[in-house]
């Protein structure tokens, strides 16, 4: 059985390989998603030993949470699963605005509970900061929900360092989720050190740089989803990124696991990172990502990977 890791200072313990479920029912993010395949992704993740599922209201919207809720109902093993979800987006007509007000966040949690068909959420994140709400007040609302047993831990995502500090004024923030991968390392300057110093678990999103760090794209690959607009996938930047991936391949080729595994294992060597949440669109990718647990990286390899992308 896989050794579980404690998530920061919470009483949650998870397989360090989680599953990022934005491609489960996330029709607003990816075209041509099949909901049955989405449910199979969740089933595969849980069958193979993944314990943490990462979702959000806005994935779908609503559909990712609803499909996860359906799978949890059919399996009946709620207590074995750590559900992480997020809220802050509010629909105003056809537009979405961000709202971190205590009353809205409390409503978000109630609505997520309904969609997930459960009576508690293991980890609830404020998905994005709004401009108006003092962040300690926003987190204060989540602390009330934690005291009521509706959520078990408190997360924030996409906050600046200043917003994170304000949010954590009373020490209530358990988890920070932010973009971090070998191509996007800004978090190393301030956010990762702050998280490490304050016992906050840092969950990196886009760990595979939306698939680029799985080493399967080349200069001719075309994208028709959210990647079509991501800077990493544009023109010269894309060519430079592919060249770095080829350098990484020289290290990966000496190991029995795949590139995605080596990359995910590298993050797990960082202070403050307890777990990763790679996304997947095929069950086989989930099984493959679990091979990360078998990767052994020497200190030289950790340094060499660092240098390719520094
Ligand atoms: N807090 C936030 O604001 C925020 C923002 C973004 C994401 N997230 C979370 O982070 C999670 C991960 O992000 P992400 O899914 O967008 O990006 P990612 O994990 O960097 O990349 C996932 C994509 O890589 C490819 N892939 C995965 N495993 C692979 C393997 N073993 N071999 C080859 N290709 C593989 C798949 O795409 P293809 O098959 O299409 O190549 C998959 O959809 C999300 O699911 C979500 O839960 C949070």
Automatic annotation (TrEMBL):
Origin superkingdom: Bacteria
NADP-dependent oxidoreductase domain segment(s): 16-308
InterPro entries: AKR (IPR020471), AKR_Detox_Biosynth (IPR050523), Aldo/ket_reductase_CS (IPR018170), NAD(P)_OxRdtase_dom_sf (IPR036812), NADP_OxRdtase_dom (IPR023210)
PROSITE patterns recorded: ALDOKETO_REDUCTASE_2
Gene Ontology CC terms: cytosol
UniProt GO MF annotations: oxidoreductase activity
Alphabetical keyword list: Oxidoreductase
Protein name: Oxidoreductase
Organism: Priestia filamentosa
